[in-house]
Amino acid sequence: MLIRVEAILCAMRPHGEHGGIIRALTGDHGMVAAYVSGARGRTLRPVLIPGNTLAVEIRARGGSQLPGARTELVASRAPWLGEPLPAAAIDWATALTAATLPEGHPYPALHTALGALLDAICHAPSARGWARVLAGYEALLLREVGYGTAPSPPPEEPWSDLLARLDRQGNAIANRLLPDRRGYVLSSRELLMQRLHKITGD
């Protein structure tokens, strides 16, 4: 197996002395997992940040081992990780995606929507410009994996109603998608919602 594709990095966890295992969302192959040698080294550490878009080459390895991957940076979202709200939103969007999507099942609409969400988080002038996109992404993810029929938020929905929508979707995600994985993944959403609720209403 040899795959060369552009992917959105959703998670990276250390493995062995210097390596790491990545989970990345592609348009044609869905979520892929692979081992990256030197993932925690000086060269790759700033590349393998969840939210970054990567050019990934994945090769099968022998036996039951994970495929190996080489990665190159296409687009970095690292500059926004120093800002509390964008950082919390990027953390939540990528952690949610990594925790809920199975490997090898294509979700082209989710791949496109996640890229658009990350771009909105990084380039909108404020959270008001991307919170609606986040709500739409969560609703799409719930529909794509077979839970819920929540529509995307209307474009002129008042801020207080949008926050209430996000709260409802958070409950649905916790109960339907993450019933046994409530640790770090949901704590990142709780932090995000706390920060969003501090924004004054319309």
From TrEMBL:
GO terms for biological process: DNA recombination; DNA repair. Residues 1-74 form the DNA replication/recombination mediator RecO N-terminal domain. InterPro entries: DNA_rep/recomb_RecO_N, NA-bd_OB-fold, RecO. It comes from the Bacteria. This is Recombinational DNA repair protein (RecF pathway)-like protein. It comes from Novosphingobium nitrogenifigens DSM 19370.
